[in-house]
Design brief:
With about 120 residues, this protein is mostly helical. Helix content is about 85%, strand content about 0%. The chain has helices at about 5-25, 25-40, 45-60, 65-75, 80-115. α1 (about 5-25) packs across α2 (about 25-40), α3 (about 45-60) packs antiparallel against α4 (about 65-75) and α3 packs across α5.
């Protein structure tokens, strides 16, 4: 049993985004242009870009991003091991962000306690 039916969820998102595109086409065109801009430079291959996107998706906690970018990573030839390594980077980034914000919280405590 899986957490979600990821294929069905992706299809639902395509329909939902399509509806948004009908109502505000410039918004979705702008998103598509931004989303595709990195591919035009060709400095990174599609698999690498999708593995980065998957790692970003977990830091953003975006199931929609997960389903689209995991599918794209698989289509680009990514292995489960490569995905796991990329996700490890995302996990570490989240931990690092928490550590940095912990320092900010300690600074706030010191400033507020000082009065």
């Amino acid at each position: 049993m899986h957490i979600l039916d990821w294929d069905e969820y992706r299809a639902q998102l395509i329909a939902g985004v399509g509806r948004i595109g009908t109502l505000t086409p410039e918004t979705t065109r702008g998103y598509a242009a931004l989303s595709g801009a990195g591919a035009k430079t060709a400095h990174l291959d599609a698999k690498t870009r999708e593995l980065i996107a998957a790692a970003c998706a977990i830091t953003l906690r975006c199931d929609g991003c997960i389903t689209f970018h995991i599918k794209a990573a698989i289509d680009a030839g990514a292995s489960e091991e490569e995905l796991a390594e990329a996700l490890g980077v995302g996990i570490a980034l989240n931990a690092g962000a928490a550590l940095v914000y912990s320092a900010r919280a300690m600074d706030a405590f010191a400033a507020i306690a000082k009065g």
